[in-house]
Amino acid sequence: MSDKATPRQRVPEQYHSDAAHTRQSNAENMVAWQQEIHQRIKEYPADIKQYLENMVPSDVSPPCCSPTGKLFMAIPVGKEEEEEETMYNPMVTALTRLVQSCPPNKRLLFHNYNHKAMKFPFQLYEWRHIALVFELKRDTSDDPMIKTTITHWETLVQLAKSARNIMVAQSLLYAYVVGIYGTVARIFRFDHAGAICTPLFEYREQPKIVHELLWRLFHPRVEGCAMVGEDPMTRLGTSAERELAYELAKAVDPSWKPTAETWKAVRRIIITGENGGKVTYLAYRLLFINPRLFSWATLIWEAFKLDDEGWSSPDERYIIKETWQQLGCVCETEFYKVLQMTKQGKEIKGVAMYLHSEDLGDLDKADRRWKAAASDSESLLRTYWDMKAGYLTISGWHNDPNQEQFNEQSHMRIVLKTVGAPLTDFTCTKELVMALRDAIEAYNEGIIHRDISKGNVMIARNNGAFAGFIQDFDYSFSWKRFLKKHGMKPSLTSWEKYCVEHGHEPCNKNDPADAFKERTGTILFMAIDILRSEITHEAQHDLESFYWLLVFIVLRHTTHGHHLKKGACGSLFCLSDWDQCTSRKFGWLLDTTPPLTVPGNGSLNALLNKFRLALMCNFPQHHVPVRHVTHCKILNIFNEVLAPDMIWPEGDAALEWIPPKNRLHTSIMEELLNLPLTKGTLDHTTTAEAQFLQAPVFEDQDLLNYIGSKDEDNNSPQKDATGSAAHEVDGPVDAEAAFWQDRSIRSNSVARSELSVSEPLAQKALSRKQAHSSTRKDHHMELPPRAKWSAARRADSLHSVAETWPAGSANVDGAKPGHHYNLRSSNHRDLGTM
C-alpha cells in the first residue's frame, strides 16, 4: 500500500533498515521530506482578512480581542537571545490571556512542550488532544518562505510533520500550524495536496489576527463538528465504544489486546451505502497507514458493523479503506466492479470482496462555488466562497491552477467484506506461501496491479475459498480497456504485440496514452525494469514484485541463514537512491549461489531458488536473451513446492521484527554492546614464560639451490633491451614468501659485496655459504620457514635456477655463458665493487 512514486525522487521511509533510521535526525529521511514539500507550500496572494474568511470558514463573528497589555512585547526575540526556548513560556502566557473572552467550552489551553518527543500517531494524551501547534523561531530571518535554504527546508518539514500528526490522530481533513519568526508570524493551512500560508504579519502589534484564527477554529461552519477541519462522518470513539470494540475483538481474535496507543485509535465511521442509507462502523484496529502527508494518505481499518441500536456481532466484521484519490485517476472501485462482472457477481478467488464505497468529494463538488475578484489589473483571482467540509483538497489548485485535475484529491471510503491478516502475521511459512500463491492466481483477469506490496497482499484465514488475496487497485491498469479505447482487439495477443512495439518507448508526459508508463508502486518491491526507466508496466513486472515481497518477509520474520542476519534486509531494500536499488537487486538475482536460505526449511528454500532462477532473464542483459516470466510458470513453481509430498515445518510462525540498532554493525558488535570490558593479559616484562614466534633457519642446501645452479638444458640466455643476459625466474608464491626472500637478500648484502663479480660461480657460492653461516645466528629471525622458502624455488627441476645479481653488475666479465641471471634493480647494490 503506497503512493505513486515520482521518478528519481525519494519519499519518506516507510520501512526502516535499523533503529538509527527511525530517528527524526535521520538525514536521508529529512531529504525525502524536503523533496516532498518542494513547491507544495505557497503564500496566499491576498490579504490576511480574505485568508481567514476563505481558509478558516466560520459563520460566527469573533468578539473583541481580550486586552493582553505588553505580554506579547515581553516575548524575547532576536539573534541576541541564546536559546529559542526562552520564548516558550512568555508565549504561553500571552496566548492564554488572548482567549479569555472565548466561552469556557471553546477556550484553548496552551502548553509548553519544549521539544518533547510525541510518538506518531496515537500517543495517549498527546496528538489526540492537540488542535493547533505554534512553532517558534528567534529571528525574522528564520521565516522559511523568504528563500530556499537547508535551514528553511527543515523548518517547513517541522511544520508539515506537526500538521500530519494532528490530521492522522484525529481524522481531520486539514489542519493549521502557526509559525512564529521573531516579531512576525504566518498561519499555514495543510491538506493532503499542499499548504497555503498567510503573508507575514506583526503578531505582537496585531494580536487580534491570532485571536480571530482561534475563534474561527472552534466555530466551524459545518454542523456537527467541534473544530474546523473535522470530518462530520467520523468521530473519535467514546469510552463505551472502546469497551464494545474490545469485547467484540476478543471473540474473533483472543490474542488481540488493546494497548495505550491503539486504544485511542477506535473511532466511529458513517458511510453511505449503495441504496443511499447510512451505515455505521466501529473501527478498532488500524491495519495499515501511509505516513506521507502529501499523498493518497491511505488508512486501512478493521471494523464492526453497528446496527441501529449501536450493537454488533463478531460476524459483522469488515475492512474500511480511506484514501485521498487524485481527480485524474480511474477510481479503484471501477476495477472491483469489472472483476465482479467477469464472475457474474460471485466471489473471485484471491481478490477481496467489494461491498460498497463513497466518494465524499462529490459533496464538495456540488456545493463549491467560485467568485472572481480582481487581484491586480492584469489577472483575476479565483477564491472559494464556500469550501463546505473539505473533502476536496484546495492547495493543489492554489499552487498550480492548470494542473487541478492532477494535483487535487478527493476523499474516498471503500468497504470490503473479506477480512485478512497481514502477511507478517503468518502462523507458519507454508501459510505465507499459500497466501502468495492464491494472490498470484487471482492475477489473471486482464488487470495490471502495479503496486504489489506488503499491505496489498493479505492472508485469508476465515475464508474457505482461498488462503490469500490481493487488494488496493489504486494504481491498477486494465489493458483490455486500453486496447478497446484505442480501437484494438482486447486480446492477450494484441496486448503483447503492443508492448513489444511501444512498451519501451520513452514516456510522453503530455500523451494520455502513456499515463500507464508512470513509475508506480513501492520502491522496495519494484521490478528491476521499472526501477531503471518509465516503461509499460506489464505482468512480468508484477510477478517479479511478488518475489521481492517474499524475500522481504523472509528476511524480517524468519530465522534465515543470510550472513548479514538482521542487516540483510536493509542491505538489499533500504538504499538511498534508485540506482543502488537496481544494482543490488540485479546482483542478488544473478548470484551464482542462492543468496537466501532458511535452515531446516527445504521447501521454502526450493521456492526461493526456483523463483529467483525464473527471474534471471526477466530484464535485458548483455548477450543474454530476455525471457519474461509468465503467470503459469510462477504458479507451477508454487504448486510444486506446495505439493502433498513436500515437507514443511510446523510452528515456524512469524518472528517479531526488531530492527538492529545500526545495520552497519556486525553481529559480533551487536552481541558485545552493553557488555563490560575485560582486562588484558600480563605484560611481557612481568613473566619469563612469554613465547615469541621465530622463523626457522634455512638448511645450507636450500640456500645453495636458491642462489645458483648449472643450466642443464644449455639454452642460450635471453637478451634484454640493453643486451644483458636475463631470464625470468619463479618468485615466491605468496606475499609472505616475498617478504622473507627480500629480508634474506638484504641481510646478506654486505657479505656478498665483498666478492668480486668476476669470481667463478663455485667460489662465489661457497663464499655466500660461509657468509650465511657466519651470520646465521644474528639473522635467523629474518629467515622464512622451510615450506615457504621451498615454494620460491622453481618447480621444474629441469630448468636452472638463476643467480640473483645486482642489475648494474650483470654485464661484466664474471658472467659465464650457460647461466641465467635475474636482473633485479635493488637499493642494496654494492657500488664499491664496480
UniProtKB/TrEMBL annotation:
Residues 123-554 form the Fungal-type protein kinase domain. One of its GO terms (molecular function) is protein kinase activity. InterPro entries: Kinase-like_dom_sf, Pkinase_fungal, Tyr_kinase_AS. Pfam families: Pkinase_fungal. It comes from the Eukaryota. SUPFAM superfamilies: Protein kinase-like (PK-like) (SSF56112). Residues 1-21, 775-784 have a biased composition (Basic and acidic residues). Residues 1-25, 707-730, 750-784, 807-834 are annotated as: Disordered. This is Fungal-type protein kinase domain-containing protein. It comes from Daedalea quercina L-15889.
